[in-house]
Structure formats: C-alpha cells, structure tokens
C-alpha cells in the first residue's frame, strides 16, 4: 500500500490537523481489512440529514450499543453466548461480535435509531449553531469609523 506524505500541507495550513488525522485514520482503516462486517450504507436524506444503516441480522436490540464520544459514533454488537450447542451443515450467517466506528463532522448529532427487519438505522442531523450561520449586514448610517477622534 502506498503512503501519502501530508507534511507539505501542514506548512501552509493552520487548524486543519483534525482533517489530517481523519485522512490518516481512513487510509489506515482501508489497509487493515476492517471494512467488511457488518456491511453498511450511508444515505443523504436531505441537505442536513443523513442515515447510516447496518445489516445486523441475528442480533437483538439489547445486544447492540450506540455511543458518541469526541465526534466518533461507535456501534457495537456483542452476541450473547448460545446456551444450546448447535450442529451446522453450513454456517454462512455471521453472528460474531463487532465494533464499527464513524467519524462525524462538526455539529453532526445522532437524532435516533431504529431496528427493523435486521437493519439498524441511525439518524444523523447537522445542526449548525446560530453563531456560525451566515448573516446579512445592512448598510446604514455612517459609524464614523474612519474619522480621527479628538482628545
């Protein structure tokens, strides 16, 4: 796997260290084979709403946990130990425990989750604070900003 040196970017950019860490983490995740289980979709519902759907067939709701910490959404599945021993001719359905992490952009919050037909869907919404929304500045009377004040 080829590695990309991002150090020239650091010399002329300030405050993008989180973005660089995300890129680095994404590149490492692709190389370690963690991308397979459970399969998932990320869907854009509208401009500020998203949904992540994970295929968690065989798991009960109480065997799943969803947690958000420091901008990382973590979904875990821990299968309860089977009480009875089963003998399979073929076992193609994986009931193994898993942990799947998703990095959330700033101001993206989890708004809920539901489980239906073996699919866990997590709703996300980007909630932009008022202070960060664009605002119009009206041009009005002179503020005398350019005049020198006399002492």
From TrEMBL:
<dbReference type="Pfam" id="PF00011">
    <property type="entry name" value="HSP20"/>
</dbReference>
<dbReference type="InterPro" id="IPR008978">
    <property type="entry name" value="HSP20-like_chaperone"/>
</dbReference>
<dbReference type="InterPro" id="IPR002068">
    <property type="entry name" value="A-crystallin/Hsp20_dom"/>
</dbReference>
<protein>
    <submittedName>
        <fullName>Heat-shock protein</fullName>
    </submittedName>
</protein>
<comment type="similarity">
    <text>Belongs to the small heat shock protein (HSP20) family.</text>
</comment>
<keyword id="KW-0346">Stress response</keyword>
<dbReference type="InterPro" id="IPR037913">
    <property type="entry name" value="ACD_IbpA/B"/>
</dbReference>
<feature type="domain" description="SHSP">
    <location>
        <begin position="31"/>
        <end position="142"/>
    </location>
</feature>
């Amino acid at each position: 796997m080829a590695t990309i040196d991002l150090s020239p970017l650091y010399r002329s950019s300030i405050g993008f260290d989180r973005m660089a860490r995300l890129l680095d983490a994404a590149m490492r995740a692709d190389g370690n084979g963690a991308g397979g289980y459970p399969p998932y979709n990320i869907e854009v519902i509208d401009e500020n709403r998203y949904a992540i759907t994970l295929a968690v067939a065989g798991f009960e709701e109480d065997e799943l946990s969803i947690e958000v910490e420091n901008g990382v959404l973590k979904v875990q599945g821990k299968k309860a130990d089977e009480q009875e021993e089963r003998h399979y001719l073929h076992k193609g359905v994986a009931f193994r425990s898993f942990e799947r992490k998703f990095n959330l952009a700033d101001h993206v919050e989890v708004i809920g989750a539901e489980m239906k037909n073996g699919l866990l869907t997590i709703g996300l919404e980007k909630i932009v604070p008022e202070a960060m929304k664009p605002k119009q500045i009206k041009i009005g009377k002179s503020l005398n900003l350019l005049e020198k004040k006399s002492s």
